[in-house]
Amino acid sequence: MPNSFKTIVIPVDFSANTDIAVAKALSILPLDGCTIHLLHIRLVHPLHFLMHGNAEGKTSADVISAIKLQQLEYDIQNRRPYARVYSHIVFNNHVEAAIAKKSKDLDADIIVIGKRSRYPLLARFSTVRPNRLVKASGIPVLTVKPGAAHRPLRKIILPMGDHFPGSKITVLDSIQSITPFQVTLIMFPQDEAHQDFTKHTLVNTFKALKCQSANPVNYDVLYGKNKAKALMNYCIKTEADLLIVNTSKETKINKWINSHISDQLPSFSKTAVLTMS
């Protein structure tokens, strides 16, 4: 993983979600230059190409989308002159798959998604799911609600698992060049057979973070069988700015409904969620 967010992909649907994602993306840009790719997915049926051939970009809707992308590109370029901004229109019948493929083709460092809504019961029908997108692309996904759009990343929550969180520590190096921050390592109680290993991992993680920077590091212990739900409640309580989770046990809130933690956070949540593999 690179040590800065040099290449950022922002999926664009021209809704409030786009404004949220753009605002957050601009707040994490490295000052020494970067590239922003605005990605708009035009949904087409698989039979479209058989019936109409290669007719992308020729309908009035396609032209309007291209104009809107140019306007957004121009606006971002004015606000961040040191950034390079490009726009893309991709035709596909699956939004998530199209984002994953194009982001890999662009060799993106991070994908930034805005989510205004909350999906307490119907999260499975959400068009873009961060954990699936991470698994499909291998690229970290930052999901942002309106309450977190303009907040600097100063209070970061980093859950600890059974293994040394090397990838999470690496991504902190990307954030460090943007703003100073405080890290809270989160531990979950382990059975006696794993206690010594967990303590050893905590000590090594603490040392690695202190060697990486002078940012303050502390830790806390959470209880509960559902780690994702405990983390969500902790972030709301502490008004954390960023939660870094992996795609396994740290993201699924409900046992039966496959809902991601970022779907369950309320729209006013101040916590952005960075999901990574």
Mean pLDDT: 83
Low-pLDDT segments: 120-125
Question: How many structural units, i.e. domains?
Answer: 2
Please name the CATH architecture of the largest domain: 3-Layer(aba) Sandwich
Number of helices: 9
Element pattern in H and E: EHEHHEHEHEEHEHEHEHE
Q: Name the CATH class of the largest domain.
A: Alpha Beta
The number of strands is 10
Helix-strand makeup class: alpha/beta
Supply the CATH superfamily name of the largest domain.
Answer: HUPs
Helical fraction equals: 25-40%
Taking Cα atoms only, what radius of gyration do you get, to the nearest Å? 19 Å
Shape by Cα distribution: globular
Task: Quote the distance from N terminus to C terminus.
Answer: 11 Å
Biggest β-sheet: strands ordered side by side in the sheet: 3-2-1-4-5-10-9-6-7-8
Percent of residues in beta strands: 15-25%
CATH topology of the largest domain: Rossmann fold
Biggest sheet descriptor = 10 strands, mixed
What can you tell me about this protein's structure?
With 277 residues, the protein is α/β, with parallel strands linked by helices. The protein has 2 domains: 7-146, 3-Layer(aba) Sandwich (Rossmann fold); 155-276, HUPs (Rossmann fold). The chain has 9 helices and 10 strands. The protein has a 10-stranded mixed beta sheet with strand order 3-2-1-4-5-10-9-6-7-8, with helices on both faces. Strand 4 (110-114), helix 5 (130-137) and strand 5 form a beta-alpha-beta unit. The longest helix has 21 residues, at 192-212. The protein is globular, with a radius of gyration of 19 Å. The model is unreliable at 120-125 (pLDDT under 50).
